[in-house]
């Protein structure tokens, strides 16, 4: 198996709860569903973009800068960004489903 294939396999593997907590602590990933992030999302203008995972994204970019843009050295940072976005997306979908229950 090539290193590229094994890296791809690691990148797509699910992350355990313990790993998420470790990443949150290490990379200061904020909870995308925190009260502060929800407030920002509710108060934004319709065309305004709100990224609750911006802290994790910035940390990943800083890692790339430090490591001469070798993404293989920053895998855990990018895993934290993916997990944050996944949590945020799932929460938004859940909120939309709950909001639409009364319509039908």
Question: How many beta-strand runs?
Answer: 0
Give the topology string: H per helix, E per strand.
HHHHH
Largest sheet: none
Rg for CA atoms: 16 Å
Through-space gap between termini: 51 Å
Classification by helices and strands:
mainly alpha
Q: Low-confidence parts, pLDDT < 50 over ≥5 residues?
A: none
Shape: elongated
How much helix is in the residues? Answer: 55-70%
Average pLDDT taken over every residue: 76
Strand content: under 5%
Our count of helices gives 5
Layout of helices and strands:
Elements: H1 3-12, H2 17-27, H3 35-43, H4 54-66, H5 75-100
Helix pairs in contact: 2-5, 4-5
What does this structure look like?
The chain has 104 residues and is mainly α. 66% of the residues lie in helices and 0% in strands. Helix 2 crosses helix 5 and helix 4 runs antiparallel to helix 5. The mean pLDDT is 76.
Brief description of this entry?
66% of the residues lie in helices and 0% in strands. It is built from five helices and no strands.
Task: Name the descriptors.
single chain, 104 residues, mainly alpha, 5 helices
């Amino acid at each position: 198996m090539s290193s590229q294939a094994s890296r791809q396999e690691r990148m797509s593997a699910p992350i355990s709860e313990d790993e998420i907590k470790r990443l949150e602590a290490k990379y200061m990933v904020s909870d995308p569903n925190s009260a502060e992030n929800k407030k920002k999302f509710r108060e934004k203008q319709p065309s305004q973009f709100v990224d609750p995972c911006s802290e994790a994204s910035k940390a990943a970019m800083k890692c790339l800068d430090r490591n001469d843009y070798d993404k293989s050295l920053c895998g855990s940072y990018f895993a934290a960004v993916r997990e944050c976005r996944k949590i945020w997306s799932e929460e938004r979908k859940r909120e939309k489903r709950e909001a639409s229950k009364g319509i039908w």
